[in-house]
Write a structure and sequence with these properties.
The complex is a heterodimer of chains A (297) and B (185). Chain A is mainly β. Helices cover 3% and strands 60% of the residues of chain A. In chain A, the strands form 3 sheets. A 12-stranded antiparallel β-barrel of chain A has the order 1-2-3-5-6-9-10-11-12-15-16-17. Chain A starts with a helix and ends with a strand. Chain B is α+β, with helices and mostly antiparallel strands and 185 residues long. Chain B is built from 4 helices and 8 strands, in the order αβαββαβββαββ. Classes of the chains: A mainly beta (297), B alpha+beta (185). Chains A and B meet through β5 of A and α2 and α3 of B.
């Protein structure tokens, strides 16, 4: 069962930083103003399957993620991310189809984002920022159910203190945005399992499809068409030695829509794997649906 | 423009440097042109700190142009530094401050100026376009307008001036005249 761990954790890691006004699953170099708060609630449903073994395994992960962003200064923002996860692994045990379920609050993430570069023009901005923080093992660490020891993939918490850092570039106008991020997380390991490090790279673009340009138009509301490429690479896990059936690389193609006003943002996205190169018997992601809302005050 | 600025700075040097004063003139409307407003959330970002400025009222933001307009409450002084700080804290770039102010024409060290009826504070006046013959005595560069200002000054006429703010250390804030007209008291 451990062969699922990498991809499921990768999915949880996925799309966690885009909390200011930005594309859906890609981070942004835009930060809130000093004293401004942004709340983001995101629901995601991920289905994994395509089991290369004869166990016909599949798994559904539902995540509700709450993100709080606060502007400490005009160039420094703090982020607090707490997920609630529900995992349901379907597999065979003694010839019977069984479900291994668990749910609860996952590991929180705390990090800072510091803007390094800003160039503003009328209706347009270009920015570069760095970020760094820590994933804290606050999640529920339930390790067994009625069927015995829980597979690592079904567990809620990694159990380890995991630092991460990254860089993000954004160019945004009233007509489009282009963002590129690169984030690396070092997984430090817990007890007998040391998860592989994670490298995430995202490229996101939105284009305003409504309203069209007109002399009268001045209200801050718009509908955006979003297209992203979200890549996750994870190293093989270690437990005594290197485990060959863990980790790999997946590149998701993620079309979506956003409707945004000056206070609210509604969004939805579908992520499907475009490139998948997984190690050994690692399970792949079939699809992920993401829906969310953001507000600022 | 560089010649005008140089002349004003030279005058400031002669007069000795003093702190940039607060503009207490009777400003009736403020317009802030802000660069970097590229998303709808930006509008809230920029309006929030500006709404905390007690002198301002009745906001109207043109998202497309990146311009925030606000009425100034009657008899409320404004402080230009507050605008600069508010925009700075949002992480955007303040491109220009445009004011509409009412007062009488007077002179400040030979320069035409708009003086507030109630507070005595002044805005130096100059004009962007026109043939520049910039000296401390001639900052307008437009003979017809210069004569009109002199006439209004002599008659104590109340006038309304709209223009973009220019600030230089050691001088009162200046308005680059975009429109000027006589108003009834």
């Amino acid at each position: 069962m451990r062969t699922r761990t990498g991809m499921i954790l990768g999915t949880v890691f996925f799309s966690w930083v885009a909390s200011s006004f930005a594309v859906i699953n890609t981070d942004t170099a835009l930060s809130p103003a000093k004293g401004q708060t942004i709340l983001r609630t995101q629901y995601s449903l991920t289905h994994t399957g395509d089991d290369p073994t004869d166990q016909n395994r599949s798994m559904v992960v539902q995540t509700v993620k709450q993100v709080v962003v606060y502007g400490f200064t005009q160039s420094t923002a703090g982020f607090f991310v707490v997920p609630y996860l529900d995992k349901d692994l379907r597999t065979f045990s003694n010839g019977q189809r069984v479900s291994r379920e668990t749910s609860g609050f996952g590991d929180i993430k705390l990090f800072l984002k510091q803007r390094l570069f800003r160039k503003d023009a009328p209706g347009m901005t270009t920015r570069l920022a760095i970020l760094g923080g820590l994933e804290v093992p606050t999640g529920e660490q339930r390790s067994s159910d009625g069927l015995g020891r829980l597979p690592a993939a079904v567990r809620i918490s990694s159990g380890s203190w995991d630092p991460f850092a990254g860089v993000v570039f954004t160019r945004q106008s009233q007509w489009y945005e282009f963002s590129q991020d690169l984030v690396y997380q070092v997984n430090t390991g817990h007890r007998d399992l040391h998860l592989g490090d994670v490298l995430q790279h995202d490229t996101g673009v939105w284009l305003r499809v409504w309203p069209q340009e007109s002399p009268e138009w001045q209200a801050p509301r718009a509908l955006h068409a979003v297209l992203e490429l979200n890549g996750v690479w994870q190293a093989k896990h270690r437990s005594g030695g290197t485990l060959k059936d863990f980790g790999g690389y997946t590149l998701f193609l993620s079309p979506g829509l956003q409707f945004v006003t000056s206070r609210w943002l509604l969004e939805a996205s579908v992520q499907v794997p475009a490139v998948e190169s997984l190690n050994g018997n690692e399970l792949g992601t079939d699809w992920t649906v993401v829906a969310g809302v953001r507000t600022t005050f | 423009m560089k010649r005008r600025t140089a002349a004003i700075l030279a005058l400031a040097t002669l007069l000795g440097e003093v702190a940039v004063p607060v503009a207490w003139a009777e400003v009736t409307e403020v317009e802030l042109a802000i660069d970097g407003i590229s998303c709808p959330f930006c509008v809230f970002n920029i309006e929030k700190p500006l709404k905390a400025i007690s002198a301002l009222d009745s906001f109207r933001t043109n998202y497309k142009k990146g311009v925030v307009r606000a009425k100034v409450k009657p008899d409320q002084p404004i402080d230009l530094a507050q605008f600069r700080q508010a925009v700075s804290e949002t992480g955007f770039t303040l491109r220009a401050i445009r004011l509409r102010a009412i007062g009488t024409i007077t002179r400040w060290e030979g320069h035409p100026a708009l003086e507030s009826r109630r507070t005595g504070q002044r805005f130096l006046l100059f004009k962007e376009e026109g043939e520049a013959s910039l000296t401390p005595q001639h900052t307008i560069g437009n003979p017809a307008l210069e004569r009109q200002l002199v006439a209004w000054e002599s008659a104590g006429t109340l006038v309304q001036v709209s223009g973009i703010v220019h600030e230089h250390k050691g001088l009162p804030p200046a308005l680059a005249i975009e429109a000027v007209q006589e108003v009834k008291p």
